[in-house]
Design brief:
about 80 residues, mainly alpha, elongated
Length: about 80
């Protein structure tokens, strides 16, 4: 869909959209819209990163190692039994 537009056309479309959307809004309402679209962009970036990982068929990162628990002796070397 966006492949049909040049970078200049996309910039013009974005500016026109923002102007039309905020027409008649006070400053606080415009600030709310800014925060809304910042969150939309963040989610779009997350989706993009996930799609790129899936495209590369990369495994997701392993969860961090859990800290050793004093009750858990699995991290200590085994002692010989007498």
């Amino acid at each position: 869909m966006v492949d049909n537009y040049s970078p200049e056309e996309l910039a013009y479309l974005a500016s026109s959209f923002a102007i039309a959307l905020t027409k008649g809004m006070d400053a606080e309402s415009v600030r709310v819209m800014c925060n809304f679209f910042v969150n939309v962009v963040g989610t779009l970036n997350l989706i993009l990163a996930q799609k790129e990982l899936l495209k590369k068929r990369c495994a997701p990162p392993k969860p961090p190692h859990k800290p050793c628990d004093s009750k858990d002796s699995s991290h200590e070397p085994r002692r010989e039994q007498k």
